[in-house]
Amino acid sequence: MKEFSVLDDETSRRAGFAIVLVEPQLGENIGMVARAMANFGLADLRLVNPRDGWPSEKARAAASRADHVIDAVSLYDTVEEATADLNFVLATTARARDSFKPVRGPEEAAADLRRRAAEGQGTGILFGRERWGLNNHEVGLADEIVTFPVDPKFASLNIAQAVLLMSYAWQAAGRGGDLSPRFEAKLPEPATKDDLFRLFHHLEASLERAGYFFPEPKREVMTQNLRTMLTKANLSEPEVHTLRGVIKAFDYEAAQLRKKLGDAS
Amino acid sequence: MKEFSVLDDETSRRAGFAIVLVEPQLGENIGMVARAMANFGLADLRLVNPRDGWPSEKARAAASRADHVIDAVSLYDTVEEATADLNFVLATTARARDSFKPVRGPEEAAADLRRRAAEGQGTGILFGRERWGLNNHEVGLADEIVTFPVDPKFASLNIAQAVLLMSYAWQAAGRGGDLSPRFEAKLPEPATKDDLFRLFHHLEASLERAGYFFPEPKREVMTQNLRTMLTKANLSEPEVHTLRGVIKAFDYEAAQLRKKLGDAS
């Protein structure tokens, strides 16, 4: 029962998935999340800008002896940094959004996370702020959405409960037995999020130069559309490389023309 | 989705199962249990000798608007009285005991509860005191034992978490094979191949102009790589439109620069 053991090094961290709490407000909740994770053998807890700072004695107290999770917490300034080394990221949302990302239930999401982890992919799930969840930019950074099948008349899971259910579903998927290799074409592993984010920035800088973001009020939605499309494409590292080559060709062309123009004037 | 609806009369209470808290110590925990239940459409909460009495303002506050569960709480002096009207009762335990009762996991137990409820049986689950659970007499009153598959090195579920997992398992058992979430992203349908082929040609013509296809012997494989990637991305018509806008921005930039260069020479 390997999946029950407490994970204690980088290799075994990859056997599980990362829990990313975005701007958590209360130390108690961070502690309860750590405790929930530990029950199901998860240990990779990442915090993006915890409101009350870190370390937190309230978190440690609420973790109820899940000290190995609290001690291994990593801190980040942005969701981009917190997910840079991961290949596949889910965002939790409580309500429907105008999103073209696939929406999964917990069991389905957990089975997919297990399959990806078995292939060596780094995976993670974003959980939003206690009061209002994730913003559109943050959801936009994820590959897919996971939501919990709660009563629509009373949907009130706190963050630790949501983490508990997802951790339980992950562990249950491991017991399910459906871990048999899929006889599919071996798809290349998705690029890390860091590679993808660098592609975003490269493309956006080149498009800025070319005058794409016009009119100005549409900049935000144009950027989101591009990012959503590139995320959805589930690009491998070689594909990211190819696309950056495409952008570089346009960069080079414009630079050469500008140089000639400078020489001519 | 009958099982999602809030249960409000004796008949529909029987569609779910009773949560029986034996000598719960903290009002907060009773409230968190009510909140956990409400998320999954359960409403029959029974208390045996709550330490701090009943009603409890702390319980109501912690229930976070699950008032219909708090208002319907029933009080008993003994486990025998609390389960008198039920046909089948499970006891939750965290550790192995000297017992000849069957021990079930949550999914198995939940499926059995659903089957019995469908036959009209009244069912319930006993949860013990925060500090030390159920005593042997109380476990002896149950038909079977249910336990949670937590990491034996870190087994630390509080009472509300245990109720949450059991409620979730019960709801999941009702969904059976249907793992679809409550809301679906409206995934746009893929663009027509004609749209896709026009995108190929546009991109390739622009890249030709920019000098991307170099060295010449690699032209074929570079073209194939681009087409494979764009096909794999399963682009919708609006996405094809967006990508053509991106290419047009680079086209326009180069054309403007060439025009200036022509004017300058």
From TrEMBL, chains A, B:
It is found in: Cytoplasm. Residues 17-168 form the tRNA/rRNA methyltransferase SpoU type domain. Pfam families: SpoU_methylase. One of its GO terms (molecular function) is RNA binding. It comes from the Bacteria. Its EC number is 2.1.1.200. CDD domains: SpoU-like_TrmJ. One of its GO terms (biological process) is tRNA nucleoside ribose methylation. GO terms for cellular component: cytosol. It catalyses: cytidine(32) in tRNA + S-adenosyl-L-methionine = 2'-O-methylcytidine(32) in tRNA + S-adenosyl-L-homocysteine + H(+); uridine(32) in tRNA + S-adenosyl-L-methionine = 2'-O-methyluridine(32) in tRNA + S-adenosyl-L-homocysteine + H(+). Coiled coil: none annotated. Keywords: Cytoplasm, Methyltransferase, S-adenosyl-L-methionine, Transferase, tRNA processing. Belongs to the class IV-like SAM-binding methyltransferase superfamily. RNA methyltransferase TrmH family. Homodimer. Catalyzes the formation of 2'O-methylated cytidine (Cm32) or 2'O-methylated uridine (Um32) at position 32 in tRNA. This is tRNA (cytidine/uridine-2'-O-)-methyltransferase TrmJ.
